Amino acid sequence: MKSGCQVADRIGELEIVGNIVPHLWYKNITFSSGKAHFVAITLLADIVYWYRPTMIRDDSGMIMGARTKFKGDMLQKSYQAFADTFGFSKRQVKDGIDFLVEHHLLVREFRTISSSSIILSNVMYVQPVAENVKRVMDERYHVTELASVCPPVTLERTSPSDTKEDQLRQGEGAPEVDGGTYTESTSKNPSEKNEQQQCAGECPVTFFKENEFGRLGSYMQGKIKSWCERLSDILVVEAMKRAVEQGKHYWSYVDAILVKWELLQVQDVEDAREKENQVMDEKRVKKPSRSAGRKPVRTEMLPDWFTEEGLVEAPAESFDEDFEVEKAKLIAELEVFRERGARVVM
Questions:
Q1: Lowest mean pLDDT: which of 29-43, 163-177, 198-212, 228-242?
Q2: Core-most of 19, 129, 223, 279, by most CB within 10 Å?
Q3: pLDDT value at position 82?
Q4: Which phi and psi (to 5°) does residue 122 adopt?
């Protein structure tokens, strides 16, 4: 069926796949100032797209069923993956995800994924809250009016059977799990779990790859895993962050930092800073003074008429009458001598 507009008919033939942003989101998902939160809106639209089911059709085009676009029970995507897709900074993405979680439009969960070769911790999974997503598509609901209708927080789970390729996948979603469930659970209550999710760090392997420390082969994965076991994931990431700040994107620099922390028996990032400051203070105390071998500075006695305010004019000499008399006599004798000399010449 044709609309009568040639351009409209051609656009109608296009198979457009991707995000759909309801127009009311620009009115309902805003900052406190009323300005639309474009980063949060874009991220939510992308996450909702991933959760829209894909129809399964037979050869004749009949719908036979539906499936998700990602593997697993939740979509797995990192902050960096979102940033690369939309051109945002990693900080903008994190702030946008925080906003959506705080306003009950999104559930965020961090999991530990393990396999025979490596353990990945703090892998982020996200899931939209369908009821609240539906509400912000209504003109009556603003994001600040949403009630908390989030489902119960899922306990932390670990999959021992994931393949390494699935674990490192950041774009297509969560890794597939044999049997559809995770086996390991935690005893933390929901409030502790939420706090842990908010404070969780980054994955050392992911940070290594994103900041281009080199090729991530089996040897480097083993090195990272070894340091994570000897210290912690957070300290390994912190050491890599310091290397990035110094512009030294190579593992030997990171390794040297970790060796020093191991010798200092560092427990966490704050402990590392305190012990490093302590070592620096001890070096300052032991360091000899630079003035130890210098010659003593000569000091001069100042006259009585020199005060702290500066140099003061010396007091004028008192008038000496005898001196003036003698001076007058000498001048008179000098005049007589000059006159005698003049007569001799004539």
A1: 163-177
A2: 129
A3: 93
A4: 55, 45
DSSP 133: H
pLDDT reading at 188 higher than 50: no
Whole-model pTM? 0.46
Distance CA 51, CA 49 (A): 5
Record: fold of 201-285: Arc Repressor Mutant, subunit A (1.10.10)
Q: What is the DSSP string of 104-162?
A: TSEEEEEEEEE-SS-EEEEEEEEEE-HHHHHHTTSTT--GGG----PPPPPPP---TT-
CA distances from 158 to 40, 119, 198, 306 (A): 29, 10, 19, 84
End-to-end CA distance of the chain: 145
Token readout for 157 is: 């789970």
What's the CA gap between 219 and 66, in Å, rounded?
41
pLDDT at 191: 40
DSSP letter for 152, please: P
H helix runs in 108-151, sequence order: 130-135
CB 130 within 8 A of CB 146: no
Contact assessment for residue 172 and residue 70, using Cβ atoms and an 8 Å cutoff: yes
19 Rama sector, left if φ>0, alpha if ψ -120 to 50, beta otherwise: beta
Structure tokens belonging to residue 293: 């071998």
The residue ranges of every structural domain in the chain are: 1-200, 201-285
310 forms beta bridges with 307
Per-residue pLDDT reduced to its tens digit, 247-288: 888 888 899 999 998 888 888 888 888 888 888 888 777 766
The span from the CA of 325 to the CA of 331, in Å, is 10
